[in-house]
């Protein structure tokens, strides 16, 4: 197989979509440090964030992947590596067609560009484990593998990610031997010191720990003074540093495997169960039934018109187990995860630990 080739005087040009987002901005920052990278092109529908605005290797393009304007702006760039992280994760209340256009149609436009641009040799696409679906028939013991079907039919995030994978597979099949090597990564919940302390937003840890303040968010903090937990609630977490490092490996290292490879990315070992999550935020659990979670999610979604991201179908991921097997990446590429699932959720070790308040520091090795 052909490896990702270097250009621009023997150096790489990397296109990162979603460059203003959580993962995308970290990739911009970390990849720009590499001596073999000449330029990073960041593309996002949002303005350039302060975190990367002073990066000299960065060219920033503000555009939506679905609007058809960015292709002309890339005409002279000739990227050889594309990393696709752009996604409207939070559903827009009452605007499902808009998120589908941005996410699925926008992804298809990027895939078409990647396979029509001869300079592109490697494409890394971010998907999600949510596509497997969280159902009452799932068990703690069964770990979903990459060859099992994407079964989600209601939670739009999982549905759209699965649809984008279908579109990517079509493009790969139609291209035959032409086009880049493709890696699809399906991450578990991504966390770490930057995710928890530099980008305070509505999320599991922020909600459980009471970091959300004001208005309806204050009500959420009151309601989770005890951690409501169903018997089937479990999570797997992957540390943000692991995400950046394994994506860097998939983008730059000699290729392993077939033309298109799919990887669940989550560390081996035990997932994080409800009592562990409660202990991590210094609280106790309050046992509830799945139907209670469903009613609460319905109320918050419609009562706040989507401001609290409890979209239809998401209640099942709070109620039933979904555990995946992330060993394929280690077996095929030799990647060794730095952080276990609970460690990623609980401790503050990592590249961005300097941004954690002193009173919140938790060192695993302390």
SSE run:
EHEEHEHEEHEEHHHEEEHEEHEHEHH
User: Whole-Å distance between the termini?
Assistant: 45 Å
Structural class: alpha/beta
**Largest beta-sheet details:** 7 strands, parallel
- Work out the number of β strands: 15
Share of helix among residues? Answer: 25-40%
Written overview of the protein:
With 366 residues, this protein is an alpha/beta fold. Helices cover 33% and strands 17% of the residues. The protein contains 12 helices and 15 strands. It has helices at residues 22-31, 70-73, 96-116, 156-175, 193-198, 204-209, 215-223, 240-252, 274-280, 290-303, 328-333, 341-346, and strands spanning 12-17, 37-44, 58-62, 81-84, 122-126, 143-144, 181-187, 189-191, 227-229, 234-235, 237-239, 260-265, 272-273, 285-287, 323-324. The strands form 5 sheets. The chain has a 7-stranded parallel beta sheet with strand order 3-2-1-4-5-7-12, sandwiched between helices. Strands 6-15 form a two-stranded parallel ribbon. It has a two-stranded parallel ribbon with strand order 8-11. Helix 3 links the parallel strand 4 (81-84) and strand 5 (122-126). Helix 1 (22-31) packs across helix 8 and helix 3 packs parallel to helix 4. It is globular and about 60 Å long. The chain starts with 11 loop residues before the first strand and ends in a 20-residue tail after the last helix. The model is unreliable at 1-6 (pLDDT under 50).
Structural key phrases:
366 residues; 12 helices; 15 strands
Which secondary structure elements does this structure contain, and how are they paired or packed?
Blueprint: E1 12-17, H1 22-31, E2 37-44, E3 58-62, H2 70-73, E4 81-84, H3 96-116, E5 122-126, E6 143-144, H4 156-175, E7 181-187, E8 189-191, H5 193-198, H6 204-209, H7 215-223, E9 227-229, E10 234-235, E11 237-239, H8 240-252, E12 260-265, E13 272-273, H9 274-280, E14 285-287, H10 290-303, E15 323-324, H11 328-333, H12 341-346
Parallel strand pairs: 1-2, 1-4, 2-3, 4-5, 5-7, 6-15, 7-12, 8-11, 9-14
Antiparallel strand pairs: 10-13
Helix pairs in contact: 1-8, 3-4
